[in-house]
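Hey, resending since the last one bounced:
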Amino acid sequence: MNASHESLRDNYEVTGIELDTLVEEAQKIHGVIGSRMTGAGFGGCTVSIVKDEILDKFVREVGENYKQRTGLTASFYIAEVSDGPKEIHTEIL
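The structure tokens again:
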């Protein structure tokens, strides 16, 4: 994920200060597996894989540091990995 963000930033130049700042701040935190921009670039969102036990720290520190560096307030959307799709069997009576 980290190398992918670097490629999007350096080779394709589709990131910006906001996305780069979010990724840089995320990557500073021990327990973050990876972080990169997502979507079409030029602003928008990042996705980070974060260990459960540091989630509160991640939101607090990335949010505070992002605000300090950019003057903007970050929003966070928490998603959890599930077991994936399953076939549902039903009986017709």
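The first strand starts at residue 32 and ends at 38.

Sorry for the duplicate.
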